Predict the structure.
Amino acid sequence: MSTPKDLRYSEEHEWVKVEGDKVRIGITHFAQSELGDIVFVELPEVGDKITADEPFGSVESVKTVSELYAPINGTIVEVNDELDDSPEFVNDSPYEKAWMIVVEPADTSEIESLMTAEQYEEMTKED
């Protein structure tokens, strides 16, 4: 699967899609492939604040539990409740169905500090 060019990426393998004055966040194809079959996703509540580089939830696979790290600071305005019943979306559709949260950024300029698709691909080649 190719890395979508219209997204930004964190070193912790989260993707960020700018949608007007909000951003949608999920984990990358690379991350889900490293984790294996996802069996549970734990996400925060609407209204919770997230802090860049701090955990905001977790994903559990048949192999391990892995923290989800906030790529930016902001307030959660939407949570993908479909992942409660269908955590396999993370494996099947990491960039479409498996978005995790929508955030109102505290400072939109933080998005510019995230990696481009090309930079993210370069980083994952080294792993």
